[in-house]
Records
---
Amino acid sequence: MNELQITDFTFQGKGPYNLAIAAGTVSGLQGASGAGKSLLLRAIADLDPHQGTARLGSMLCHEVPAQLWRKTVGMLPAESFWWHDTVGEHFHVPVQELEGNLFQLGFDAKVVEWQVSRMSTGEKQRLAVVRLLQNKPQALLLDEPTASLDKANIESVEKLLLNYGTEQQVPMLWVSHDPDQLERVADSLYFMESNGCLLQRS
Amino acid sequence: MDVKPLSPLDLSIAACLVVALALLSRRFRLGLEKRLLIAALRTTIQLLLIGQVLRVLFDNSSLVFVVAISMVMLTVAGREVTARQQRRLPSFQGWLLGTSSMFVSSFSVAFIALAVIINNDPWFTPQYAIPLLGMLLGNTMNGIALSMDRMTETLWQQRQIVEQRLLLGETASQATAEIRAQAMRSGMIPIINSMAAAGLVSLPGMMTGQILGGSSPMDAVKYQILVMFLIAAGTGFGCITAIWMLSGRLFDERDRLCLDQLRT
């Protein structure tokens, strides 16, 4: 089973951080804005330089190509960015394989023809989840995945992510400002203080 | 037919035009007069000096002299390319990058032109080597500076998109393919445009000079075509080198975007 293990992790004068997230479980991460939660996620995704080791099962971050690590440890940034004109151009698997996830989030297969420039923030955020899952990541780093969604959509995104996590036995690190949400989704809780210190809550 | 020499009086009349413009600028408070006069003065002094250097050089056709002058020209051009960037690499790296691309764009192409195409004896005959190299450096410098500027500027503006693409598992070169193509286009468009307009809209400077100097129009035209091709090829190879080196500098070995090192 793939456990996500972060050991003696330091970057930009922060840390050291130690985290362990078991396969198929969710660790919530809370903390003040600017404490460095997103920076921690970026460093684990190997988007920023860091010291220490990040390990997923037997895969060590610094031993595999960066592209493979980032596909395997999928990070959903707080704001999603789209660079092609239509949604479909951002998907590299046939739309039939995505239909299940699209339906769950209230879309249908026609969404691939949508113009990115006409989408709302919420639509982009939900579609970014589908886009991330097409890589079949084996760990998930989620930076406020439901921040700009209404209640019904928050529910469906939570459900989709939790189902995926259980089915694929994926460890997840879930950043949220909403204590109720973490209550719902998280098996364990980390709290980041404004000086960057990480505390584990039971 | 020999070229009709210009007397200092002839040049003074032309200078009066510039002075008249400066006075006009002062009268209408355009704020141009100081810069205009300093630039005019610089052009006079710099060109008179280089005229002296070339006179000595042409009398002693030595490879060492030609190489020495070329090196000075190359170094200055490399510095100039970097200085024109809105966001640039730290000084030595930036200079190295600029100089390397200028070397590719100008030295290699000028060498082929001198040794293979024009084929003088000796191949480095300064009357050909120095003007040719100067023209290549001057013209390819624009294209290379433009493409580098476009590359860093677009990367800066689209850094979040680039990082999003990296997060989805793309390589640095996949994530910047469009940006690099745009940068390449920005660098190449000026020379492509001037090749397209040559002869119809503008008479290129070198050709004009040769005709004034008494060459037959057809000889001048052939040299102009040669120079245009050399500039186009040089600019293209130089831009490719510059963009390739920039990509290497702006991403680390783990394909992370490192824009913090750029100075404004």
---
Amino acid sequence: MSEENTKKVSLESGIEVKPVYTQEDAKSADIGRPGEFPFTRGIHPLMYRKQPWTMRQYAGFGTPQQTNERFKFLINHGQNALNVAFDLPTQMGLDSDSDEALAEVGRVGMSVNTLNDLEEALSGIPLDKISVSLTINATAPILVAMFFLVAKKQGLKPENIRGTAQNDILKEFIGRGAWIFPVEPSVKIVTDIIEYSCRNYPKYNPVSICGYHVRESGATPAQEIGYAFEIAKCYLERSLQRNLKADDVAGRFSFNFNVYGNLWEQVTKFRAGRRLWAKIIKNEFKAADEKSMLLRMIAGGGGSGLTIQEPENNIIRGAYYALAGALGGTQTMALCCFDEAYTIPSEKASLLSLRTMQILADEVGLCDTVDPLAGSYFVEALTDEMEKKIRESMSEIQSMGGIIKSINEGNLQRKLSAQAYNYERKIRSGETPKVAVNKYVKNDSCTEQKDIQVYQTDKKEIEAQLKRLNKLKSERSSNSVNKALDYLKKSCEQDQNIMPSITDAVSSMATVGEITSAIKSVYGGFKEPHF
Amino acid sequence: MTDQKIEDRSQESGNRRRIKVLIAKPGLDGHDKGAKVVCQLLRNSGMEVIYSGLHASVSYIVKAAVEEDVDVVGLSIHSGVHKEVCEKIILKLKEAGYDGFVVLGGVVPKSDENELKKLGIKAVFRLDTPHEEIVNTIKNIVMEKVG
């Protein structure tokens, strides 16, 4: 059969894949050595040969105590870092006793009202040894302030604390939706955390820019990386306006990317992304230190790739996503669990995801040599093509007037929603094959799985959490709370960095809800563009 | 029922408007991809669709449903609080005299469906519901009422 007669293969990012690649296709490959500019092959010279990727399953539910138990369960089974899930009231700046929290307390993550809650969640976990990632955005300044106060209570010095705050509000406006304040003050707060961390917490990553959720909202893999870079450039530019230098800031940025879809497209988006980010930081931001140019990332097995049909198949999908992340050279990995099309993950499902990564790292040789795909005609050619596509997607944002304008006007959200709709149509029509969804579908149409444990919040635990909050409110000094909240409002009004005043408020036992209300009284709330 | 019948009816009566739907995201859940996909699906099927935006309050949803006189309110909930939220919204809609239908989409276990239907949810759409089924179900429940 001649090449012309084979079926056309197009990747989501709009690249056509040829049936055969040769030396000719890869001759311009700009790959260099691992650990050297432009870092196509990885950000460290020895990569997993020196240290396998960090395993960091997303976990948290119910009360701080319940979550602490799950954390210890994961650590006891070999997980070496934490990724904290907060419930929606905590993410949205509401206390557990708020009317608006309606049934959401402890539902999709752990409930945190005050410093005491985070202290309990992290009790017995040495914060200088286990790196903790806080998946928190609009209320990130509050949780970051709490986190460093907990470390202090553990007797640790802030300069020794590793960890990451997600703190990427722009992606919340694009997807995920946990925004509170308007876009401009929200970006100001992100920059406050970055600036404060750069000056006080030298080992902390104050932001993790999430292509992950942009992809979940309908972006192609190339757009996922390109849009994340536009977001990162925005935060970086804002940080430079605070008298920080590119070399003070850029090396502190980390990224959160998605893995689902075509394996080669995922691997090459990471290789191409690393190369392009290094060039951007060196050439556009004039950084001198090579450490500033490293694209450090977590790869997350993508929820959108998983299916409600035959959910056990998601275990297999997760394994391939982990493989793509490892072949792409990620520093950290997390996998959505097989039951997540139904519920927040069970302990069994979380452990299976952790085991998937451990098997990959320890049994089948993924850590044996650095960037094993390097030099493949196909992989190098596709890496070049992906780099072009990522650049094109960055131009898309610029032609919409930049990342902030495109979000404020809703043009970016509408574009991605239209893409998501087209993607769904391709799945429903079978144009994009999905096993047991549109191909090899079983005749019995009932997809409900009896062996999936659907998570129910433990009402007694939630009541205990409310009691705890009431007790605290009656015992604390309302005078010092009010003073701290007034100081916070003033620092918002006077356009100062709000981290010091939030730290004061958290120390005075002000709640997440009270602190958020104080900020909102100055900055107002976001009004979503029309859809 | 088919599209044709709805069109026929609108021609017969002369004033039967297009089916009007409010797609709403109540509560704190920010997962709006599904809701927006369904908005586009229903618009492309000829319906008039109003989207509430994220974090819509119960009072906002009730007010919009009544003032806009929508045939169907479609709630989208992914965080697992569908029973509590549906119960509250249906109660408030009844109090406000809303006489249309309420349907639900999102991450909803099949085992919850009976209870939801008892609360007054007319149909539940899940991740594996075919697009045609969503469109046809909405058309059918509106048609049944029109009679």
